[in-house]
Design brief:
about 90 residues; three-stranded mixed β-sheet; globular
Length: about 90
């Protein structure tokens, strides 16, 4: 998964309930944040590094994530969702 002003790619991620995954986040331009409050995730994504986030979805649903590091006009639209299916 990549982060850059003002988007995450992909912006929608589908996971299966109970199936562990590791998201690998990189940034193409500057420092960004990745916060997914419903799953207690709040990470910083720094240039030149890969941020690994392990997720084991414990409940089905749609969970929103967003950038927590202000990156300019358009920052408020830098978001996406994780969809956990049974």
């Amino acid at each position: 998964m990549t982060a850059e002003r003002f988007k995450f790619t992909p912006s929608v991620i589908e996971l299966k309930l109970g199936e562990p995954v590791i998201l690998e986040l990189t940034t193409l331009d500057r420092t960004h944040g990745f916060q997914l409050s419903d799953l207690n995730i709040d990470e910083t994504v720094e240039p030149g590094k890969v941020t690994h986030i392990r997720i084991v979805p414990a409940k089905a649903g749609t969970f929103l994530f967003h950038c927590t590091v202000f990156c300019g006009s358009g920052h408020e639209d830098m978001a996406g969702e994780i969809v956990v299916k049974p």
